[in-house]
Amino acid sequence: MPTIPSPGPAVSPDAAGSTGPIPLSAHEPDAATLARTAELAAAELLAPPAPARLADVVPAPQRVVPDPAEDWLLPADAVIVASADPAAQAVADQLAELLRPATGYPLPVTDAARPTPVGGIALVLTDDEGLGTEGYRLVVTRAGVSITAFTATGLFHGAQTLRQLLPPAIESPVPVAGRWVLPGGVIADRPRFPYRGAMLDVARHFFAVEDVLRVVDHLARYKLNHLHLHLTDDQGWRIAVDSWPRLATVGGATEVGEGPGGHYTKADYRRIVEYAAARHITVVPEIDLPGHTHAALVAYPQLAPDKVAPAPYTGTEVGFSYVDPADERTYDFVADVLGEVAALTPGPWLHIGGDEAFKVKGEVYTDFVERVQRIVADTGRTVVGWHQLAPAAHVDGRVLQWWGTNGEDPTTAEAVRRGARLIVSPGNHAYLDMKYAPDTPIGQDWAGLIDVRRAYDWDPGSHVTDVPEEAVLGVEAPLWTESVTSLAEIEFMLLPRLPAIAELGWSPRATHDWDGFRDRLAGQGPRWATAGISFHRAPEIPWPTIPSQRRPGQADAATL
Ligand code: TNX
Questions:
Q1: Rounded to the nearest 10 degrees, what angle do helices 266-278 and 328-344 cross at?
Q2: Cα(355) to centroid(ligand 1), Å
């Protein structure tokens, strides 16, 4: 049940960080404000706010021990105190920025050698490696909250949990008169898999930097730690490459349909990388080779097998294009592009695609891939590719991304026996471009329909036959964008399925339970609605009713 904010002293939007609550008398409240205050007061009398339950978190934490006797009310004068480490201080600043808009509280950030809550929030870096590189321990008592972690990443994940434990109104961009109660108890949490990601195809349709940053925010909420950007495809090349400038200026000037396309300058790309890094998310750039390269051939016909410049392609077919594997200039192109992309990317991964190169077969394909894998190794990065790479020789650290639809592939299992690790993205469970239902207005259905239950009910650790859980690096949810044209459509396809995939990547197998997940997921709806985030009101999720949204004669408005 969503907590209904109680009427309290009105708070001015600019009070954050300066003056704190302003007495009601300082304002001349208009009639609408008075009516709203009365409505909230009445609602509270009928249904006094209950704190969220400590276990109401997505993804489900590893261990939750509630203690209702220790519920804690965030006071207006709370301080956030963090270890005197720049990365811990940065998390404290981010947490303050999350909590200030809705609470209107100043929430000053300070540092201490040994932070303790004393009526506020303490973020504590510890030498205890037992929490792992991403784990955290969150303790709520009547004295305040502490989040303890071995790394700033653990503190960041703990802060996301804390955010979900506050009432949904915490997502409001403007001050809300609320009682900010946190449920008492202890959460001890760490992820099941080290790699938890989502992919955004910015090639079929191009999306502005701001849209990508917003997607990063969604990943961070659900403790995902990798953003895979599908940067190149037949319909557009989206990243500036100084040594081959026409890739972006010519190859980037189209997209599916009639739109203008676009590309990221190096500064744009760095901005995405830095924004993601600040949220403990690693960007995985993909340059799809040898197929899905039509836009590159438009820009540089010497890369094409027949050396003739083709017309730009803005349809949605796949598998027709390829760079000439018999021409040495192709490998110069590959080395130049991957070298520049690696130089822009601090993370360890370079994704080289490798899918649907239907016209580059057998040994020609494996020779090409093996050469490109060596080029990646020369950049000091670790190669990732779609599972079609499997027949090629192993190189150190190699990761294959599974996108099959039936979990059976002896060639992939054999590549794993030779040392490859797997990211699992089953087309029939994790593909966020699949429709939810036959009447979903956008999306595809070649891998079937994927409702929320289908996105949730599978196990990454045992999905691919003869691939042991130890070889599974993690999970990823790809969003291909042939039919996705705007941020609102991205969000509609992502939510509520992305949290399902995130939970499979983070939560212990023992917590897997559709009924429980469905209820916890329902609690996210009011948060998205309050934050102005679009999502699909999937009918199988019991979205709560928000009384204050009810409008006469609009039955649908009563439910999210
Ligand atoms: C297959 S999945 C593709 C993409 C398409 C997608 C559409 C994969 C590695 N290749 O080129 O966009 O299907 O669902």
A1: 50
A2: 8
